[in-house]
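The data are passed on as follows:
___
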Amino acid sequence: MSNPLVDMQKPDVIFCIGTNMTECHPVAATGLKKAVADGAKMIVADPRRIGLTRYADLWLPIRVGSDVALLLAMAHVIVRDGLVDENFLRDRTREFEAFRDHVAGFTPEWASKICEVPAKDIERAARLYGEADRGAIYYTLGITEHICGVDNVQSLCNLALMTGNIGREGTGINPMRGQNNIQGAGDCGALPNNYPGFQSVLLEEHQAKFREAWGVDVDRELGITKITALELCGKGIHAMLVDGENTVVSDPDRIHCDHALRALDHLVVIDIFRTETAELADVVLPATSWGETDGVCTNTERRVQRLRAAVPPAGDSKPDWWIIGEIAKRMGLAGFEWESAKDVFNELCELSPIYAGLDWDRIERGEYQWPVPTPDHPGTPRLHEDEFVNGRGVFKVVSYRDPAETIDEQYPVWLTTGRRLSIYHTNTQTGRSAGIPWLQAEEELEIHPADVAEWGLEDGGFVELASRRGSVRIKVKATERSPRGTVFCSFSFNATPVNELTGSGYDPLTQTAELKVCPVRITRTSPVTSS
């Protein structure tokens, strides 16, 4: 996030797109609710009538996968109506002229045909955001889990740059992280293109730095993503370690994922429970849970926080850092002689410029947000206040393209997937709580009541939900949360393996799967009866 969480209460206009925040980030969402209560205007762009729409002044129920068309048309209106921040453009950006010429042809009327929302509503959204003194953008996986995820994010950045809504209180580009230490994992180098601290693996000076620190040569080339790794299982990759991820349930194209993992000669899983992925492993190494672990977490607002063990570890479980270090040492590798989480974190601070001013003792109270470049630096709650890291903000020229697969006669319905308030991710943890089934006992397919009637279905009845990759049996839930022609379900229940259907395409730059768009066919089925 470019701005701290406290800034959620300070915008004049809030633009939420592709984020079901009241279910996926319910605590953080209270900040937006407070802002609306204090008079802020809210725009919500989402195909479904999610909880945020209750607080919205304007809801844009766009067709799944049409975000770029909407954002191009909003940029068109902001330019056309003279709502650009000329001073900010002059002092802080470059390449606006090419972008301005590009968006000239993308009218609200053009976008309306793609997004399936009225042109007047697109114009109103653009004016609300463009006229705001403090306009803030919030997004989540509904923006990134598309073949055009990078285009979506760049389009949002274009809106912020052209209106000067960046680097100030109550503004910014704010992606809400999907899990508690996603930001911290990236900070530590859990990315195929960066060393710790987002230092590119392609630069010789970075390679030299880590060669000296680690005592080994590291290839100066981009690493592979998990998508590529699964493609190579049994065909170049013969062993794999999966740490804290239930890949079989959460990944797209589940049948392919399952086949890939079974093709390995050796699979090691580190986790706190025996997940569906762990069931395929040759070796399962038990990790400590959050309440049993000393460590560090960096949250969605870049706040670096100490974690403290509250209870002793269960059984023979060990912290992840200890397990990985022991594996490395037994493979004959040097540099893993840590004795505590403090040693691991302090090494990160020595090697990462954004953590250079921190150490284990300084983060005692969790008061610092990176970058913290020096020991006397107060931290950086708000990014880009005076300048951008690369000097000037660069406008990106992007164009709309259809999803990897679109609806047709054989698969005439749009499926979009996501999460639910009561079920956390793949249900590995919440599924062990006795009270959760009272809230959500099984997966349900949300269908508009008019579609339920037209398609000859029954609320509470069962259907076969099929895509070009597979099919699942699922219960129908009639609800106006889903628009006509679009259905929704989560991927949380292993008994309803929805991700057997997804995986039609991937963003060419990040290889993020298009989990939010999947054409499907729905067929009524009979209940399963016991013999």
Summary: DSSP finds 18 helices and 20 strands in the chain. The chain has three domains: 5-176, 182-355, 413-525. Residues 149-163 form the longest helix (15 residues). The radius of gyration is 24 Å.
